[in-house]
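Hi everyone, sorry if this is the wrong subforum. Our group has a chain we'd like a structural model of before ordering constructs, and none of us has done structure prediction before. Sequence below.
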Amino acid sequence: MRYLLLSASALALAACGGEAPEAEEAAPAEIVEEAVEDASETVDMAADEDAMSETASLDVVLAAQPDDVKARYEYRHPKETLTFFGITPGMTVVDTLPGNPWYSGMLIDYLGPEGKVVGADYSPEMWTYFGNFAPEPGSKDNWPAEWTADAETWRDDDGDAAVGAVQFGNVPAEMAGTVDVVLQVRSIHHFTRLEDEGGFMTEALADMNTLLKPGGHVGVVAHRAPEDSPDEWASGDNGYVKQSALIAAFEGAGFELVDTSEINANPKDQPVEGDFVWRLPPALATSRDDEELRAEMEAIGESDRMTLLFRKPA
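Answer:
Right subforum, don't worry. Here is the predicted structure as tokens:
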């Protein structure tokens, strides 16, 4: 997307009348002082317009999504979430389990020509632990190149961000220290549930640390388990994990907790042992043939989610 802004210097020149006074008709000191003050105010206004344009462009991107996508905004709060994570045009952002639009398709438009969206997938080895949902052997081997080629077709404007891809467990050396923000949106539970199988959470935390610039951030949105839940049930197998457990894992890997937010909270979702997150919208896995149960799940809405922001120390 292209956004046209007047430069601050042009506006300042306009504030001064667009011409310098001739030498023999030098302006009185008070007039010069007033003109400088006017120019300064105009530059400040231009800076404000620059900041506003970033917010407006995100609004435009979100408003352009299909109605079925916008129907999810009630629970996913994309504007508030991206703003909380500090994502702005020009950044390089890694999006784990990327999709179009969630969130890569949106970011391609929003980050602009100086930005980059890097799709990130689980490692081929990790995928082998997904049981009936595991992909065909070998089908993930060329995922970075295949995803990048696909994402290139989502770019419809010279003003869109560049694209690339990476797999956890195989971060190329040239990508080290190049990323501003890593997104883990509704994806971190797979790392936690498979930690005992192959150390995948430990590996992912190390990879995120490698990818990030000093001072870079990780933004996490995850299905939240009640703190008094049994640890085994809240390990991620059912989609839910404890907020305290995630914070402890990130801090144990050297990250700093910057802030938490309730922007994606849903107090109607009160899971108990035996529940799994996919009973709720949009999956509705347990109620496809039960209209009464389906209505009950739809009345709850999408899951209760924690929103956490971590920082790699500078």
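For your construct planning: The mean pLDDT is 87. Residues 1-64 form one domain.
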